[in-house]
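Figure 6 in text form: structure in, sequence out.
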């Protein structure tokens, strides 16, 4: 029986580590054809090489999602190489949390650029192709923080709430084009996301919390695979999951 993943062309941003890397490995094992984007060229290429050496199909394209032309180039590489894009996973994100009163305005701007505009650039790059195909699947990454406001992550929470709003609007607008839309909202998952926290007190607290409850990134990969694997007339609109041990 088909898993509805094998042979699909899947573009993933933020693919060099964490959620993106785990998902790339998982989908490669399920037979997907991958086009991987991230800023860290060497790590990205190593991942693509490993997948290819193990019998999978992966192409690495250096991509910074804050640069719209680079996101467009990522999608263009998929189209030029494989003729289509079946799934776009807008995964790249950062989480430099700090209390608002510390006025880390540059970090606010960075989160808006990566977490919101990066998602929008991914949608903009892939949407015309999927509309022409009359098929496709756009998966955006929110968070438990997109459902709750948890200081000192106020700005981060705002960006993840925005991803949910964008995704729901996309879902409704794309119904005539047979394009599916999924939001995946993970809780504490072991990734490098905490490395983007520059406030020492917040970083220490988050590190302790994640060491206590975080689950492996493969949990996210399985959620993505579940959404993709559904029959084309089934649209999994949102997946919210946490470690069993996570209270908030």
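Output sequence:
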């Amino acid at each position: 029986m088909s898993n509805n993943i094998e042979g699909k062309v899947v573009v993933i941003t933020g693919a060099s580590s964490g959620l993106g890397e785990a998902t790339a490995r998982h989908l490669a094992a399920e037979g997907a054809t991958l086009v991987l984007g991230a800023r860290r060229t060497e790590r990205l290429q190593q991942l693509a090489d490993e997948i290819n050496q193990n019998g999978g199909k992966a192409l690495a394209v250096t991509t910074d999602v804050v640069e719209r032309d680079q996101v467009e180039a990522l999608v263009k590489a998929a189209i030029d190489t494989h003729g289509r894009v079946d799934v776009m996973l807008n995964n790249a994100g950062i989480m430099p949390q700090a209390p608002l009163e510390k006025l880390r305005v540059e970090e606010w701007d960075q989160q808006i650029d990566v977490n919101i505009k990066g998602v929008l650039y991914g949608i903009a790059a892939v949407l015309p192709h999927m509309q022409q195909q009359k098929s496709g699947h756009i998966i955006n990454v929110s968070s438990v923080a997109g459902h709750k406001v948890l200081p000192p992550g106020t700005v981060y929470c705002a960006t993840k709430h925005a991803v949910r709003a964008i995704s729901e609007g996309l879902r409704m607008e794309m119904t005539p084009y047979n394009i599916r839309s999924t939001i995946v909202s993970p809780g504490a998952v072991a990734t490098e996301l905490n490395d983007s926290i520059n406030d020492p007190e917040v970083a220490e607290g988050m590190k302790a919390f994640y060491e206590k409850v975080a689950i492996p990134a493969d949990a996210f990969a399985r959620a993505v695979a579940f959404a993709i694997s559904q029959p084309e007339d089934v649209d999994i609109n949102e997946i919210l999951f946490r470690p069993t041990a996570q209270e908030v």
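Caption detail: The chain has a mean pLDDT of 97.
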